Structures are given as structure tokens and as C-alpha cells.
Amino acid sequence: MYAQRQLSYAPSPYSYTPNPSLSATINLDEEVKLATTTTERDLYDSLAEIYSIIVTLDALEKAYLKDSVTESEYTETCNRLLKQYKSNLSDESVSREFVDLETFKSEWEMECPRATERLRIGLPATVEQPSYNSSTSGGGAAGSLILAATENFITFLDALKLNMVSKDSLHPLLSDIIQSVNKVTDQDFENRGKIVQWLITLNQMRATEELKEDQARDLAFDIEQAYHGFKETLN
């Protein structure tokens, strides 16, 4: 009797036997492209940019906490990253694919807790909580800074009276208020926290989304009270 020939592969309960005459239709040396059109390529580029911004912002927050960067360097870089983040998401197709920050982080297995908090607030830590009093630089400079802050309060309240209630109208004006106020005083005056809270609320809205009538009324009241609180610190 002939000795049974040993199989070069493990036996299978199925009757399939590889057929060498069949060849793969995929060229293994060919580069696989994520996008086949310019639109798709632009979309993936924007999503990759957002991913990079989140990672970079998280590293920046850690560096700031460790005093590895100066306050001015941190503020400038953080503002730039926040603007780039918003700019990328202003595209409807990118925003639709992105969904929201938590969904994007889950999909790409990202943690980045510090970047998440900074993007939620939409302001650098130095603006949210100023750590120095710049009003000590001299009477003339302080006078011009007070005037600028006062004008920003009035401009914002006038915008509300003119029924400018969309995020893209109000957020820049409110940002001007908090930044100009921080240049005058680092005191936590009455209702200063309301300015920051409304900035967070507006930051989480879509660009064209508008405040409801009762929200606009509450916002006007809170900013007027913050304006009075600011003026009291000057007395």
C-alpha cells in the first residue's frame, strides 16, 4: 500500500480547494486612496486638521499648567487654535461628518480632557480667569482701557436692542467685552461670571443659531448687571 501523502495545510470540513488559476484582482503595489474626488479629499483634510488641533490644544493646556509657556504665548496660540477649530467646522459638510466633539473623539478613540474643556468654553484660560492686573501700567493707559471696555459693553447692549441675536453676531462682541475688561481689572466683580457663562452658551450654539426671546432678555439683563459691577470696581 502506498503511504498516505501528508497534507501541507490543515484539513477542513469544507470541500473548497484553492485554485491557483484564479488570481487576485487587487494590485498590492497600488496606493489605496481615501478619497476619489476633490470634495472628499478636502473633507478628510479638514477632519485631519481638527484632529491635529485637538491634540495640539491638549498639549498646550498641559504646558501652560506646568509653566512651560508664558501667558502671552499660551493666549496667542490658544486663540489661534480655537479660531482654526471654528473655521474648519464652519463648512457644512465638515460639520455634518464631525457631528459633535464627543462623537468625533469616540470615533477616533481620543481622550484629550483638557482640550475638550477648552473647546467647550471657547476661551483661553488667561481670558476666562485673568491672572494679573494690567491696570497698574499707568493712568493714561488705564483710562483708554476703561473707555474701550465701556464702549464694548454699550456696543453689545445696542446689538441686542437691534435684535441681533445670532451666535455669529453676539459671540465676537461678548468676547471683546471680557478681553477688554480683563485688561482693566482682574477683580471678580459682580456678574463677571455671567459674561463667561454666556460666552460658553453661545460657543456651543451653531453659527447661525439664534437666541430665543426669553434668552435674549436674560442675556441683556445679565450684561447690564455685569456692566454696573464693572463700573463699581473703578470707584
Q: What is the approximate shape?
A: elongated
How far the N terminus sits from the C terminus, by CA atoms, comes to 113 Å
- SSE string: HHHHHHHHHH
Judged by helices, strands and strand pairing, the structural class is: mainly alpha
Approximately what portion of the residues adopt beta-strand conformation? under 5%
* Unreliable stretches covering 5 or more consecutive residues: 134-141
Kindly state the percentage of residues in helix. 55-70%
Output the number of helix runs. 10
Radius of gyration (Å):
28 Å
Major sheet: size, sense and barrel closure?
A: none
Tell how many strands the DSSP assignment holds: 0
What is the mean predicted local confidence, pLDDT? 85
From the structure above, extract its key features.
mainly alpha; 235 residues; elongated
